[in-house]
């Protein structure tokens, strides 16, 4: 169920349910089962912990920094979430994004293409990769894991061939604009952070309030049922992968804004990082369950832990260690919830 | 009374195997027609042909006397034929209303619906609620996830969905196969409710007692052909089984 | 009220216990005790796992303790992981460090981040690898990789003399400065140029043992007569040795390498590697820390390049070529 609708007025038949206390218990259980509660609690707990541990954590500037640091992986996670909701997985997203950034930056710097057009071409290239993923998953009926493992390697190789292993520097303003900041009160906020948040909002709306969003959940939940009830599953899946690809292109633009270079080495662990955010966000890897809002929290959890531990002076391996433990906890919770349902 | 859905001389071959060998079929308005037959008699192939899940090699299908050609389940659905499958074709994580309207969601009127594709959740909920009550399916809230329901209730949702959108025919393919005794009884009641609403029902079942209990007529399929159409009052179960297994002759002849 | 550590209320006490636990686990003890009168230094290496950087971190930690300052460390997750280094720079800047020591993973891509930190008044020092351009950092403490290459090139030439050689070059990765400098240094020292017919095979190994072995196997397929192998580092050299051994060519082929890690020096002792050029990561880090502390306490900010030294280590010294023996190499090795 995308989010919960338990607050909606229930039909009159609800009156014949037995026992008020059982109702209350059910309400609590249902609240705890809302997929965003766990990730939000974890995020708030982490923030509380770091606020008490270091006085540099809870400042506008630092929090803005955290959001800015997760904007690339967070945006990738938007695409990853939609794919995972259909019970697929996308291993290629980091590599596709890296290829997109190299296409954008090389076209704009060495290729005499106006920067805005270069950006569009980069995003379209990423969308095309997504379409290939979607096409192979639906037409050739290959598992998404295998398909995207293939396109991961293809995108990686193309990135290195096309970039000649060279980092692209001296980018025009239009390409790095999203890395610029604007003042909000006394805090500088990065435009790219806003772009990421807007993307999350749009994805939330589509998944929660439109038929297409419902079909995404239905396809991940029971593809056969979705097909039999008239959902065009092929078209839906191809659309999902293609849109995800375009979102990866945008993530690439955000990355370029943040680092102000086109880096052929970028994004090598981003596929797993985005999956981490999705899992921490309470979305089931089995598909059909979870909320995109939780994924935003999931991405922020990773960013907060990395930033907070760094401020405390804890070495970076321990940030990775803690993230690993959290992932296993999150998947364990999902597994338990599944077992209880069956 | 002229048949609402009929088929003549359907043939379907899979390599050397002939699943349908000139099968005929006839469904009259307002009736529950049961289709029985041994494994391999071609029951499910026949039903798949009628519901658009496969295209027969030969033969004709007529709906309301007009020939129809289904190339997909969606074609059949558009023609007003809905199918309920044995394996509970619902999305467990979605709520009841979402399942009822899956693939046929209702959007808000005006710009919100047209441009922003905003769903009219409230309307779907209330229509689902009215519809479920109409079929006497006692389920609390339409915003409840289907996975919180029992197997019988889930099948109730699937039946309700078909009944809600079928204009001509509801096909039920082994709707009780996955259910316990009590829940089967619930679904059988539902089948009757659907007929009460004027929709003819094709019921495919292995469960001979249930078939004799609920059906108006019984189509007996054997070796890819219809070998008999009987009324539950005309023969007893043993005789029906005998026809099914070929121990007794049928009452229809093949039209070649 | 600003305070770094919470007063022990019931909640914060358990939280404090958690912090203590984390720090104990971290085993670095660098974070908690507020020593160093507000001087904090950041160290960002390419990875956490390579023994070279482990040694570098050790050097920085030792020196920071001696000088009574706080050290923060971070690393990328793989060689070339620019994004993680950028993030670490931002976080360290937010943490209020005085100076940052960094081994750039991507020499060009890191430049804008270095500029940002320097704009905030942070002393940015590159260790081991110069950024591109080198002026993007305040100063550089590194091995002269060209010299390192030249040392082993000269050594090889002095052993081989005028004999005809067939050379395999097991390089790092395309476009990485360190690799290019070592490669060029070796050729200069040996007295040949790129494209010389004696160079019969050139392969990239990423400085990895398994890839080094594969590269050598492929080179031997191409030309079984290879008798001199230049390797970018000792893991690549050991991989090459394995391949040569399998081909039965260890007796007639000489391997030279660069780095001076303990495993590498032991391989020199065992005769698997003829000679290696040893560099000193511990020294780089220690000198870097010193430089920042001196500046933060009112001294002059270091600039330009400081050579942290390199020595030729071999068990079979050649007349007229300065070298150190294996005992020296083992006493000063890292890893």
Automatic annotation (TrEMBL), chain A:
The keyword Ribonucleoprotein does not apply. Keywords: Cell inner membrane, Cell membrane, Membrane, Transmembrane, Transmembrane helix, Transport. The chain crosses the membrane at residues 27-52, 113-132, 144-163, 189-207, 236-257, 277-304, 311-333. The keyword Acetylation does not apply. Signal peptide: none annotated. It is found in: Cell membrane. One of its GO terms (molecular function) is transmembrane transporter activity. It comes from the Bacteria. This is ABC transporter permease. It comes from Actinoallomurus iriomotensis.
Automatic annotation (TrEMBL), chain B:
Keywords: ATP-binding, Nucleotide-binding. InterPro entries: AAA+_ATPase (IPR003593), ABC_carbohydrate_import_ATPase (IPR050107), ABC_transporter-like_ATP-bd (IPR003439), P-loop_NTPase (IPR027417). Residues 5-248 form the ABC transporter domain. Gene3D superfamilies: P-loop containing nucleotide triphosphate hydrolases. GO terms for molecular function: ATP binding; ATP hydrolysis activity. PROSITE patterns: ABC_TRANSPORTER_2. SMART domains: AAA (SM00382). It comes from the Bacteria. The keyword Chloroplast does not apply. This is ABC transporter ATP-binding protein.
Automatic annotation (TrEMBL), chain C:
InterPro entries: Peripla_BP_I, SBP_2_dom. Its main location: other. Residues 1-25 form the signal peptide. It comes from the Bacteria. Keywords: Signal. The keyword Signal applies. SUPFAM superfamilies: Periplasmic binding protein-like I. Pfam families: Peripla_BP_4. One of its GO terms (cellular component) is cell envelope. Residues 41-299 form the Periplasmic binding protein domain. PROSITE patterns: PROKAR_LIPOPROTEIN (PS51257). It is found in: Cell envelope. One of its GO terms (molecular function) is carbohydrate binding. Belongs to the bacterial solute-binding protein 2 family. This is Sugar ABC transporter substrate-binding protein. It comes from Actinoallomurus iriomotensis. The lineage of its organism: Bacteria, Bacillati, Actinomycetota, Actinomycetes, Streptosporangiales.
